[in-house]
Design brief:
By secondary structure, the chain is α/β, with parallel strands linked by helices. Helix content is 37%, strand content 21%.
Length: 275
């Protein structure tokens, strides 16, 4: 990938941050697969980190990649030589907390705006998912990729995910977060506070007052309206981006996820679809 002026068709190219760290106590999946870091779990001869990096590098919307984790050198060893030494990939040591680490680099020369945050265990990420996300993005200060439950269950009826339930639908995160500019920083501050509750939507909305919490709990508000109201409280524009691709919400948090992702990649790699 060649980056000349940070522009693609008149639009600025995105910096993609790959979160590849783990908590100090370690990660159960890393232990299960007998690797030091979860990001280094191999699937069909490539680490999850490498799969995510290659998908991002192939996207015409991405101009730079930042791999973030506690041990940049160990993570670099999980990439093939062409990626480990790539001019458009930087490695940054994370600090305490995901949100704090991201906050420290966004908007700097390391990670210029706009920024897309994803995770190393997002092993099914591919061009179709990224294209769908960027085509639906309309300049929000903060945008969060999600998949609706009916989309997931129509493709994978036995899939077990964490669902955020609102009026009109339930949604699971796709590990894609768009941060447009400095206006997004209050959302990062909130993220640092609720990081441990990131899969419990009601605890997040509790930070925006009892009325919004009540509406979220009683499912009398849609997800888009709930995010819009939460964004207004922070002085920014926030919206979900609902992706039509079930695989966008499948990451690797437990052995059954790894088994499913391995099956999907086996079929995908065999067909030559979706690098």
């Amino acid at each position: 990938m060649t980056v000349d002026d940070g522009q693609s068709g008149g639009k600025p190219l995105w910096t993609a941050i790959i979160l590849a760290g783990q908590r100090p106590e370690g990660d159960p999946m890393a232990a299960y697969c007998n690797v030091r870091f979860k990001a280094l779990i191999q699937i069909h001869g490539q680490t999850m980190l490498e799969r995510v990096a290659r998908a991002l590098l192939a996207s015409p919307d991405i101009g730079r990649i930042v791999v973030m984790g506690q041990s940049p050198e160990a993570l670099k060893s999980g990439l093939a030589a062409d990626l480990a030494g790539h001019d458009s990939i930087a490695f940054v040591e994370s600090s305490d907390g995901i949100a704090t680490s991201v906050h420290n680099v966004v908007g700097t020369a390391i990670a210029p705006w706009p920024v897309l945050v994803t995770t190393a265990d997002n092993a099914l990420l591919n061009g179709a998912i990224l294209d769908s996300f960027f085509q639906s993005y309309t300049g929000q200060d903060v945008a969060v990729g999600v998949v609706e439950r009916k989309t997931m269950l129509s493709a994978y009826p036995d899939a077990r995910r964490t669902w955020l339930k609102f009026r009109g639908g339930a949604y699971s995160g796709a590990n894609l977060f768009a941060l447009h500019n400095a206006a997004a920083k209050p959302a990062l501050a909130l993220w640092s506070i609720v990081e441990k509750d990131r899969k419990k939507g009601w605890k997040i909305f509790a930070h925006f007052g009892p009325w919004l919490l009540l509406r979220a709990l009683s499912r009398t508000i849609g997800f888009k309206d709930a995010m819009a109201q939460a964004g207004q409280r922070m002085g920014l524009r926030a919206e979900p981006i609902i992706l039509p691709i079930a695989e966008a919400a499948i990451d690797v948090d437990k052995p059954s996820d790894l088994e499913l992702v391995t099956e999907i990649l086996s079929a995908r790699d065999g067909s030559g679809i979706g690098a």
